[in-house]
Amino acid sequence: MYVELITTGSELLLGATLNSHQQWIGRQLAELGLPVSRQVTVPDSGTAIADAVAEALSRADLIITTGGLGPTADDRTRDEIARLLGLPLTEDPEVLRQIEAVFQRRNRPLPPNFATLAAIQARVPAGALVLKNEHGSAPGLAMKLPAGANAAHPRWLIMLPGPPRELQPIFRDHVLPLLRANCPECGGFIAHTLHTFGVGESRVEDAIRPRLAELESRGLEIGYCARTGEVDVRLTATGAAARELVAEAAGRVRRLLGKFIYSEDQRSLEAVVIELLRASRQRLVTAESCTGGYVAHCLTNVPGASEVFLGGMVTYSNELKQTLLGVRPETLAAHGAVSEPTAREMAAGGRERYHADFAIAITGIAGPGGGTAEKPVGTVYIGLASRDEVTVVRQENAFDRETFKVVTARQSLELLRHQLLGMRPAGHEKNPQAQTCGH
Amino acid sequence: MYVELITTGSELLLGATLNSHQQWIGRQLAELGLPVSRQVTVPDSGTAIADAVAEALSRADLIITTGGLGPTADDRTRDEIARLLGLPLTEDPEVLRQIEAVFQRRNRPLPPNFATLAAIQARVPAGALVLKNEHGSAPGLAMKLPAGANAAHPRWLIMLPGPPRELQPIFRDHVLPLLRANCPECGGFIAHTLHTFGVGESRVEDAIRPRLAELESRGLEIGYCARTGEVDVRLTATGAAARELVAEAAGRVRRLLGKFIYSEDQRSLEAVVIELLRASRQRLVTAESCTGGYVAHCLTNVPGASEVFLGGMVTYSNELKQTLLGVRPETLAAHGAVSEPTAREMAAGGRERYHADFAIAITGIAGPGGGTAEKPVGTVYIGLASRDEVTVVRQENAFDRETFKVVTARQSLELLRHQLLGMRPAGHEKNPQAQTCGH
User: Dihedral through CA B411, CA B412, CA B416, CA B418, nearest 10?
Assistant: First the structure.
């Protein structure tokens, strides 16, 4: 099945916003066994939307569009597609009632031009199914297009509103059931992803490929996706033996990459760490300087984090390092805020003062300013205090400011994950500069 | 000029990663006056890349591809495009030397199969310009394609490596100068974006459109982009009068939307707040419960934040609310952790204890669990303490957990921005449930 996703909006092409729909819808469809074959972004002006849909109709079995269903003048998707297909638009009284109901639930007064706005969004192309929008005005629309000159069999064309908190529930509640009911092929495609941290892409490939060659010859496909410090290994197959083939391959990858695999199939590193803490009934605090609260933010994105995450200190200033964590003024004077002894005292002090089982402490130079010859921008000390010891690792994360935060946070969570699993830290294997100092 | 961006990678289509290149490159090209006309994502398998490039060649003046230049088997862009254009690939000794130099600068041993990996990435299609990669192996490649059957004039085809920290410097250092030198039209396109927070999209349009109708008739284009709580107003024009037209329109929008505009042209709300603090030499601390460090993270993304941001407390547990912020046990017992009095004591305590001019305090229910009839999921109290008073606002941010954090953080920064500018909080204008309680 050829699936084409058309995201509309000049703001995407001008770079004003990230194309988060591409990721979210792509993931949903991949899990269903209908991976997106092509994605296109077109502006919400002129005939670009109709042109893209016309092209997609010539090759795709399923077309999904996002955006352009709202009430403003640059919302053109519904009209352009109706025009392209030669379908009249009719105001649907049931949709009108739903739009009114959504406004009333919000407990806010109707805007003065409500009737006009609602009427625009309540227009439905002849023959389209209405996909109810519980969180906004414009509903989704689904059309089954007959086979014809361009296509040997019927195709589906689905239009979804742009705001994610409207699009996502409509997709889950209405589009997924519709696709399941209409897709005889779904289920034949199996995908499985293993997420690794701390080994380079070519080392991952070198380790895996020779051991999976035979499975590849039987139809397994292997994909690698490298981000800074991370490599995803994606295993896919289609057909009757797909599930076995992927399971066998995943087992081999697990044996080959061992402790570098932090999760499988989308579970985040922070979710894994929270779960390990919960399972062992242990509690964590964070003491962050240069990552500025990012580690705490990641941890608290996990629902239920409050059971094991007591809280965190963002001690940007030296004064706060002393008053909140008990770092000694002599330590700061002798070694500086970015140093092994400071990281050690931050971790130990944070853990003891706030009655936690573990403390993560981070102090470094995020840049762009503040580097020296001895401690260049990117230098960071990561401390992990447990009841028994304090471990401090030095890393050189010479990236831009935000990447620095992300990489450093993940290194600190990996340190804790390995500790929770009773593994030796993987740090010094991946980075010759890293040092691990028990005390 | 018709610009087409082709991002390659199955990981994008499967939703494993966000398409951040689309945003970054889109923004760079828009600023240059060459807005992207169409963006396509294709998988890194089969002939999809060549098919997409062939299609783009039939309509585009400039084609940029990202990804697929690395050493692994799913890196096919270079080969597919050379095959499509009928160009031989030759190993470039200078590129080989550069790849070796990058490895040596990293101070790491060469991998055993280095020669093979380097040779793959050093192959250059006949006639292509090599765009030096200072941060990785594979260089970018630029080709000027002659006019021919498909095109009346020469076109540029540029291939860039996928990793952002390789792609971005190549783009800035080599692609932008190349485009400036080869684009007679650049400079005729003007874009300006005003970022608003706290008014709905249709209210923004209603306020603006009638006052800009006359400018629209002279060629101004207006676009709206709504995210949760935010609306960007994008003004664009082309031609000789473009700059005047956009400036006049921006002036009118400023007068109409006043304090809802927090910045113009991409400056983030947190950068604006940091700058206002710096200009007035005032210092800030944060005391976050349900936002879990997200406000501190946003603030510390701004280079130089350490001058005005002393640090933050992430007081998830009640115990930490007491020990770190001085919230009284009686307050917690009588009103609960999510309450106006708790937010007030968190803000006042945080500001006094840590010797700051301002403290932002946030306590609420991020969900999915923890809601009650009186305080449903999404309820949050935001406190702002200054030397003179403590203001507490109640908001209902009934979103998913991450959206809750983002919206709440922005509301808290807006509260501070308005305070720093001597404005009354805009909160109660946009939300009838909001209450503002000076003391």
Answer: 20
pLDDT tens-digit map of B345-368 = 999 999 999 999 999 999 999 888
For B115, the token pair is 């020669």
User: Which residue in chain A is spatially nearest to B299 when comparing CA positions?
Assistant: A292
End-to-end CA distance of chain A: 59
The shortest C-alpha distance from A415 to chain B (Å) reads 20
Q: How many CB pairs under 8 A join A and B?
A: 317
Q: Domain end: A182, A216, A236, which one?
A: A182
Does A356 reach chain B within 8 Å, measured CB to CB? no
* pTM, entire model: 0.76
Closest CA to B384 of B429, B410, B351: B351
Domain end: B215, B241, B264, which one?
A: B264
Please tell me if residue B114 touches chain A, with a CB cutoff of 8 Å.
no
One domain, residues A102 and A196: no
Q: Do B144 and B232 fall within a single domain?
A: no
pLDDT, tens digit, 9 for 90 and up, residues B226-264: 777 788 898 988 888 889 999 999 999 999 998 899 999
A54 to chain B, any CB pair closer than 8 A? The answer is no
B366 exposure class (CB count in 10 Å sphere: 0-12, 13-18, 19+): buried
Q: Closest residue of B to A137, CA-based?
A: B202
User: Which among A13, A27, A366 is the nearest to B39, CB-wise?
Assistant: A13
Flag whether residue B398 sits within 8 Å of chain A, measured between CB atoms: no
Give the count of domains, chain A: 3
Are A29 and B10 spatial neighbours (Cβ–Cβ below 8 Å)? no
Q: What span, in angstroms and rounded, lies between the C-alpha atoms of B75 and A131?
A: 40
Beta bridge partners of B111: none
CATH number at residue A206: 3.30.70.600
B421 and B315 assigned to the same domain = yes
> Which pLDDT value is given to residue B400?
79
**Contact: B19, A14; criterion CB under 8 Å:** no
Range of the domain at B251: 189-264
Which residue in A8, A34, A36, A41 has the most chain B C-beta atoms within 10 A of its own C-beta, making it the best mutation to test that interface? A41
Q: A57 and A155: one domain?
A: yes
Task: Give the number of other CB atoms < 10 A from CB of residue A309.
Answer: 27
Q: Of A206, A164, A176, A401, which is closest to residue B18 (Cα–Cα)?
A: A164
Closest residue in B to A107 (Cα) is: B432
Domain match, A249 and A327 both:
no
At B282, which CATH number? Answer: 3.90.950.20
CATH code, B84 = 3.40.980.10
Pairing of strands B123-125, A436-437: unpaired
Q: Say whether both A147 and A178 belong to one domain.
A: yes
- My answer on whether B304 and B341 are in the same domain is yes
Beta pairing class for B261-264 and B189-197: antiparallel
Q: Are A51 and A17 in contact (CB under 8 A)?
A: no
Q: What is the dihedral of CA A25, A27, A31, A33, to 10 degrees?
A: 70
B157 and B242 housed in the same domain = no
**pLDDT string in tens for chain A (439-residue length):** 899 999 998 888 988 778 889 999 998 998 787 889 999 999 987 789 999 999 999 889 999 999 999 988 889 999 999 999 999 999 999 999 998 888 777 666 677 788 888 899 999 999 999 999 988 889 999 999 987 666 667 789 999 999 888 999 999 999 999 998 887 666 677 888 899 998 888 889 999 999 999 999 999 989 887 777 788 898 988 888 889 999 999 999 999 998 899 999 778 899 999 999 999 999 999 999 999 999 999 999 998 899 999 999 999 899 999 999 999 999 999 999 999 999 999 999 999 999 999 999 999 998 888 888 889 889 999 999 999 999 999 999 987 788 899 999 999 999 999 999 988 654 433 332 222 222 2
